[in-house]
Amino acid sequence: NKPVTTSFIRKKKEEGTPITMITAYDYPTAKLVEEAGVDMILVGDSLGMVVLGYDSTVPVTMEDMIHHTKAVTRAAKTSFVVADLPFLSYHGTVEEAVKNAGRLMQEGLAKAVKMEGGSELVPIVTRCVQAGIPVVGHIGLTPQAVHQLGGYKVQGRDIEAAKKLLEDAYALQEAGAFAIVLECVPEEVAAHIASKLDIPIIGIGAGVRCDGQVLVFHDLVGYASQLAPKFVKRYTDVGEQIHAAVRSYMEEVEGRRFPATEHVFHANQETIQELYG
Ligand code: KIV
Ligand code: NA
């Protein structure tokens, strides 16, 4: 399969073909979702919650992001890998932001970076794009701002907020972002934004009329993810299968049924003779 590119993703929007994106944070997951043929893999800072067990994405560091991005890009050769810039890694100087975005590409081997925010990010997006770093924007519910937003709530419900979202989307597109994640907004607002913008709008909790969808891997397979929000669909329950497998293993160990003959090695006759007489 040919590697997915930004122009391929853009073309999907033009053709009206939905773009598929899933998060992954490690080698086996990246391998599995790439084999399934997903367009884009997001190394989301949601890893702080679903793999590191934090209460929010706020504690996630650049080192965490690089570590996990490296693991994902070792497996993903076809899917387009986007890595999140973590909390506060793009809120100092523009130079610092570009340097951190560059690290996700040079050390993590990501193909693009994602950052949360609207028009206030224009100088940073512009500089990243000038430097050859493809940028994905992220507006609506921006989890790094959870303590400011007062929880994980639907955004853009009233007309003022909806207009602000559209303005932010335009500003990011103008600055050179090649796609935007739009999280947890009413579907009517999301559909309006997707229809106005030339670049793909990847929705999560934003309805079916976006140009693509993204979900957190652990939520969609039921892999020990915490209380999932309304917009998540759990396609399978691997947690249940893992519980069953671990319980079977324990039972067999406790009943001395594992390991069985096919799992053991044998000493040669001479050794057995010496040991047992
Ligand atoms: O970190 C993440 O997983 C994300 C998606 C929810 C879009 O940013
Ligand atoms: Na994120």
TrEMBL record:
UniProt pathway: Cofactor biosynthesis; (R)-pantothenate biosynthesis; (R)-pantoate from 3-methyl-2-oxobutanoate: step 1/2
Subcellular location: Cytoplasm
GO cellular component, one term: cytoplasm
Residues binding 3-methyl-2-oxobutanoate: 45-46, 84, 114
Entry keywords, A to Z: Cytoplasm, Magnesium, Metal-binding, Methyltransferase, Pantothenate biosynthesis, Transferase
Gene3D superfamilies per UniProt: Phosphoenolpyruvate-binding domains (3.20.20.60)
Entry-linked Pfam families: Pantoate_transf
Swiss-Prot/TrEMBL cofactor(s): Mg(2+)
InterPro entries: Pantoate_hydroxy_MeTrfase, Pyrv/PenolPyrv_kinase-like_dom, Pyrv_kinase-like_dom_sf
Highest taxon of the lineage: Bacteria
Active site annotation, chain numbering: 183 (proton acceptor)
Major location (coarse): cytoplasm
Catalysed reaction equations from the record: (6R)-5,10-methylene-5,6,7,8-tetrahydrofolate + 3-methyl-2-oxobutanoate + H2O = 2-dehydropantoate + (6S)-5,6,7,8-tetrahydrofolate
Residue sites binding Mg(2+) per the record: 45, 84, 116
A biological process from GO: pantothenate biosynthetic process
Annotated EC: 2.1.2.11
One Gene Ontology molecular-function label: methyltransferase activity
Catalytic EC class: transferase
Cofactor: record remark: Binds 1 Mg(2+) ion per subunit.
Recorded family membership: Belongs to the PanB family.
Function: Catalyzes the reversible reaction in which hydroxymethyl group from 5,10-methylenetetrahydrofolate is transferred onto alpha-ketoisovalerate to form ketopantoate.
Subunit structure: Homodecamer; pentamer of dimers.
Protein name: 3-methyl-2-oxobutanoate hydroxymethyltransferase
Organism: Brevibacillus invocatus
Species classification: Bacteria, Bacillati, Bacillota, Bacilli, Bacillales
